Amino acid sequence: MTLTQRLAPVLAGLVLLCAQPARAEDDLNALARPDLERSEIADFGANLQITLTLSQPVPFRIFTLDAPRRLVIDFSVVDWAGQDIAAIDHSDVVDGVVAGPFHRQWSRVVMNLTEPMALETAGMATGDGGGAAVLKIQLAPTDEKSFAAAAGAPEGARLSLPATAQVAARPSGGAEARPLVVMLDPGHGGIDPGAEAGGVFEADLMLRFALDLRGVLQQNPRFRVVMTRESDVFVPLETRVSAAREAGADVFLSLHADALAEGRASGATVYTLSEEASDEASRVLAERHDRDDLLAGLDLSGQDDVVATVLMDMARLNTTPRSDRLARALVQGLSEQTGNLHKRPRLRAGFSVLKAPDIPSALVELGFLSNSADRTRLRDPAWRQRAAVGIRNALVAWAEEDARKPRLIRP
Q1: Out of 106-120, 273-287, 294-308, 364-378, which region has the weakest mean confidence (pLDDT)?
Q2: Which of 75, 127, 347, 380 lies deepest, with the highest CB count within 10 Å?
Q3: 3-state DSSP percent of the chain in helix, strand and coil, to 5
Q4: What are φ and ψ of residue 157, in 5° steps?
Q5: Helices 202-218/381-409 angle, 10° precision
């Protein structure tokens, strides 16, 4: 049986749901809510059975992705706020499940699979009299080769990838006539909440800080601020960098506050790009920060060619020292305003969001949620204000130095 044949019930469900009268279409525009008490992810012999009960029928699509193996279920739209879908996972085949907003018109459930599974049946049933709908999915074991051949996102499933940005050369900002364009990137969001400790989620906290920082920067006419996200939505890593380029950003700042299971790390750290991490903690954090793209199936790390790689390496000959100067300025600014720095405040790691070859970039770990003192500071508006002022001062100092450098090297 081909993948198209297996997906026939899914496509039929989509057609039937989307072909209802106008009144039903209006109902579908409302957010459906999951009923986890009547839902389950469980093994049935060698098969995997998934039962998801929703407050109303909605369009959906199902597909698998490889490397790593995942089952993806998209809905238009289910509100997963406050719902712990991991609580219904009782399967040995599923190793982790997340759910949340993926795009303004779609929400997504992603299940990591420990072994290759093929979609056998899928269908949404209604008619219990209460308006609820039940999506039932069954997968059966398959071999690695067949799974890889069937895996892949259907047309339209990568809704958040922007078109290639068309960028024209222009003078540097900040110390010139035009403002410095700063792209702020609050880490994680949507289906990837990031680190969590003490009831605080990294995605929420970094969005709050990014909005604080935007307010501080916008008080100075030298800056124009854009953001990769302004709400709790999922933004793929590749899209964050593309959005910065499309906005004509002069600088890219990714904001994080992670948690480490071991050790007593505390204080702010500023990272720039390196293929080799400065230490083991940097390696672990790099893997965690890049996990959200793997969850969504948008890992594009191998999508360049030899010519593109050479061109990017040439661009980095100019961008790398500019990023290094940016990182030094950020460490200095945060030190002067907060004094709360990590014992090694200047590190390197292979974070994907730092890989733009043409935009000076830095990733700022403002602190560690795993440290109670850091967690308290990060939740304190007064401390966040001081940290924002420190970053603003750093950007001013960096822009002035960066504008002088070309004149120093010209004959």
Answers
A1: 294-308
A2: 75
A3: 35, 30, 35
A4: -80, -10
A5: 60
> Environment class of residue 192 by beta-carbon count within 10 Å: exposed (0-12), middle (13-18) or buried (19+)?
buried
Question: Which of 150, 165, 192 finishes a domain?
Answer: 150
Q: 254-278: per-residue pLDDT in tens?
A: 999 988 766 578 999 999 988 665 4
| 159 inside domain | no
Q: Is 52 helix (H, G, I), strand (E, B) or coil?
A: strand
Q: What is the largest CA-CA distance in the chain?
A: 81
Alpha carbons 375 and 373: distance in angstroms, whole number: 5
Helix (H/G/I), strand (E/B), else coil: 313: helix
Read off the pLDDT of residues 323-362 as tens digits, 9 standing for 90 and up.
999 999 999 999 999 999 999 999 988 888 887 888 999 9
Cα separation of the two ends of the chain: 69
Domain containing residue 85: 3-150
Helices and strands per DSSP (H, E), number in the chain: 11, 16
Distance from C-alpha of 377 to C-alpha of 387, rounded to nearest angstrom: 10
Confidence of residue 172 (pLDDT cuts 50, 70, 90): low
Tokens of 339: 């004094």
pLDDT tens-digit map of 118-156: 999 999 888 665 678 999 999 999 999 999 999 988 766
Residue type for position 90: H
CA gap 165, 174 in Å, rounded: 22
Q: Are residues 10 and 102 in the same domain?
A: yes
Q: Which amino acid is at 317?
A: L
Domain count, the chain: 2
What is the pTM assigned to this prediction? 0.65
Are 210 and 110 found together in one domain? Answer: no
How would you classify residue 146: left for phi > 0, otherwise alpha for psi between -120 and 50, otherwise beta? alpha
